[in-house]
Amino acid sequence: MASLAVLLAVLFFARRRCAGRGGAVGALRTGFARGEISEADYRARLAVLNQPRRADAQAIKRPAVSG
After folding, report:
1. Crossing angle of helices 2-33/39-50, nearest 10°?
2. Count of H helices and E strands in the chain?
3. What are the residue boundaries of the structural domains of the chain, listed by start?
4. What is the spatial distance between Cα 8 and Cα 27, in angstroms, rounded to a whole number?
C-alpha cells in the first residue's frame, strides 16, 4: 500500500515538472499553426525551450559541495 502511494507521488510530481515545458511548446505550436509566427521564429523559440534550464545545467556542471 505504501509503495503505491510513493509511486503515485512520483508520477504526480514528474508530470507536473514536465507540464511547464509542454505547455509552452503547445502554445508555440498553436501560434505557428495559426500563422502568428514564422517558421524561423518557431524553430528559434523551440530551440530555446529545448535547452536545459539554467538551474538544471548548473547542477550538472557543478559537483555537489560536501561540508
Report:
1. 160
2. 3, 0
3. 20-60
4. 28
In the numeric block, which cell numbers belong to residue 61? 556542471
Cell of 50: 529545448
65 class by beta-carbon count within 10 Å (0-12 exposed, 13-18 middle, 19+ buried)? exposed
Cα 32 → chain centroid: 19
Chain centroid offset of residue 64 CA: 23
Q: What is the pLDDT along the chain (67 residues), one digit of tens a residue?
A: 778 777 677 666 666 555 555 789 999 999 999 999 999 999 999 999 888 877 655 666 666 666 5
Amino acid making up residue 4: L
* Cα angle 4, 21, 42; round to 5: 150
C-alpha of 12 from chain center: 15
